[in-house]
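Exercise 3.2. Students should predict the tertiary structure of the chain below and write it as structure tokens, then compare their answer with the key that follows.

Predict this chain's 3D structure.
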Amino acid sequence: MAVRLPRPHRFDVYVALGGLLGGLLLWAVGLFPRLPDDSLVLWSSDWAALVPLAATAGCELLRRSRPRTVLLIGTVALVADTFTRGSVVTVLLYTDLMYAAVLYGTPAAARRIPWVTGLLTVAGAVVPFAVWRVPEALLIGVGVGIVSFGPASTGLIVRNHRDAAEAARLRAEQTALLAEMDRVQAVTAERARMARELHDMVANHLSAIAIHSTAALSLDDPATSRQALGVIRENSVAGLAEMRRLIGLLRDAGAETVPSAAPTLDGLGALVGTARANGLDVTLTDAHGDGLPAPVELAAYRIVQESLTNALKHAGPGPVRVLLERRDGRLDIAVTSPYGGHDGPRAPGSGAGLVGMRERATLLGGGLDAGPESAEDGKIWAVRATLPVTEGDTA
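Answer key:
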């Protein structure tokens, strides 16, 4: 199976053609670095100098894709050129092959070639000087350094700068990617927070509206209908006020005006009163104390609110008990209601309430469990949450 060589780079084609044409021009005018009677010249014919020239020019076409191979071929061509009348262009093309071998070769080759050429440069200066004992012998090492060590060192410097620039580009891309991930996570977290707030604020009122409107439509009793309409109006007004508060929070975010405060546990009495007006038999036992952090108060309020909403929609007839107790650096919340007694919920639900309550507890490092339990007066549905409280922290 034939090996298909890669297509050469356009710049490499220009270099190869330019070097070949330049070498042919010097050959045509008879400009050679060595005389025919030089002791190193084994092939004195002018045509012999064209073979190494053509070989190094051809190697330029593969200087990027096969840097090690063309360096070996170029080295053989340079040695062969030494035994002809020679060409300056052949030497120049070889220096470019040495440079390319370090720049485009493997990392191991890029580390090894400068060391090898450096040793050859030192040997090219020391050995002739030791043999001939004349200062001119040191020029051999200088020539070897110019042809090999100089291009190899230049290629290593350029490669290091290129690798540093590539690493900086990758770090910039990673930083941009991390920033985008942080932005997406922040947007997702904010949307989840808004969804919890919207659900907790509106679901209670809309559930009461749905239940009482169903009662008003199903009972042909003017007094009952009037009472149901009163409850519907009260919950509509309260829900509208909550919606306006949320819209105010969203519009005032980042502005100089201070948005309305989030609900706290001081509003539990009003919340329980609303639940009683909606038909629940609620008993509140509040022992949360003072100095709770604001996030804990908000989460506790919303958990109680959502639990009462679920009791309104799903609980059977009987007492609903709400207990808040602070002890041992935590706030315990328990809301129990009769379980069963209905063929289905009295108002539709999405199931997002339990998810939102668990999210609120988890964000504060606490936990929440909800499910049926056995009690003395029958089966109950219990919501039990634990929220960590740092003593003295009121932030």
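Discussion points: The longest strand covers residues 378-388. The chain has ten helices and five strands.
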